[in-house]
TrEMBL record:
MF (Gene Ontology): acyltransferase activity; hydrolase activity
Keyword Hydrolase annotated: yes
Official protein name in the record: Putative hydrolase or acyltransferase of alpha/beta superfamily
Domain annotation AB hydrolase-1: ranges: 22-264
Organism name: Natronococcus occultus SP4
Top-level taxon of origin: Archaea
One Pfam entry name: Abhydrolase_6
């Protein structure tokens, strides 16, 4: 892996291949390895680049008291500038999809394309009355849970609540994928976990009708229904959007159905001569 030194952090990223760049941004409490099936598929035809977002993976703890999707997007911009990438295809999963949406809002026509997996516009993925979020904040309960049980148990508790509410397996339908994801969660520092959650919770999704970037949104059939709805909204809102649902897959759709996801991504890239 390589390092990008910023004033308040050192970001870790990985790059391989020599073709057109595909920049991958992982989901919350995961790391760049979450995109390994896509790196393996495209490293002979493109240039896959994975980033460990602040608080995650090898980047880990950074000297910032509060995280935000805006800050994560600033970091993505810094990486693109550092690597001198002018028209990459940006691929985001979950939290990463928020970062990519934010980037597209700032730069509606700068990326060559966007591929979003498990795409969400807000956390929770439901519309709340104006001004209600601060009053309904789960941060006190989250802080207590992290203090008592740590990140992995806190995350498992969240999964249990989602399954009880939706009846879906949600995160992943594959036990091995699920356990690998849990291992990544266990690597996250408790304070960083809280900062990441707060960034997700406070994110105010941008309106994307001005975005000209071709965008493919992919979700699994075991995805939580509110997330499916938001995925369709994203695909419908951008000027050139499409959505795809893959069977037998959950939120980590790129890992549950790597071959199908890769085929869809390859077709998307080929259609655009990328």
């Amino acid at each position: 892996m390589a390092e990008l030194s910023l004033d308040d952090a050192t970001l870790w990223y990985d790059s391989c291949g020599d073709g057109s760049p595909l920049v991958f941004v992982h989901g919350g409490w995961q790391n760049g390895r979450a995109w390994q099936p896509q790196v393996d598929r495209f490293d002979s035809t493109h240039r896959p680049i994975t980033l460990d977002v602040r608080g995650h993976g090898n980047t880990g703890v950074t000297d910032v008291d509060e995280y935000s999707i805006d800050l994560f997007t600033d970091d993505l911009e810094a990486l693109l500038d550092h690597l001198d990438l002018e028209e990459p295809v940006l691929c985001g999963l979950s939290l990463g999809s928020m970062v990519v949406q934010n980037y597209l809002d700032r730069h509606p026509d700068r990326a060559a394309g966007a591929i979003l997996g498990g795409a969400v516009r807000s956390m929770p993925p439901v519309e709340l009355p104006p001004g209600a979020k601060p009053l309904l904040s789960p941060m006190p309960a989250l802080t207590a849970s992290l203090s008592m049980t740590g990140p992995e148990a806190t995350f498992r508790s969240m999964l249990t609540s989602i399954r009880a509410t939706t009846g879906q397996r949600w995160l992943s339908v594959e036990p091995e994928v699920r356990e690998t994801a849990m291992e990544a969660v266990g690597e996250v520092d408790s304070a960083e976990y809280r900062k990441i959650f707060n960034a997700l919770y406070r994110f105010d999704p941008p309106e994307l009708s001005h975005v000209e970037t071709p965008t493919l949104v992919v979700h699994g059939d075991q995805e939580a229904p509110p997330v499916k709805r938001q995925s369709r909204e994203i695909a419908a809102e951008v000027e050139d959007g499409a959505w795809l649902e893959l069977e037998n897959s959950g939120h980590l759709v790129n890992q549950d159905r790597p071959t199908a996801f890769n085929e869809a991504a390859a077709a998307f890239l080929e259609e655009r001569g990328y």
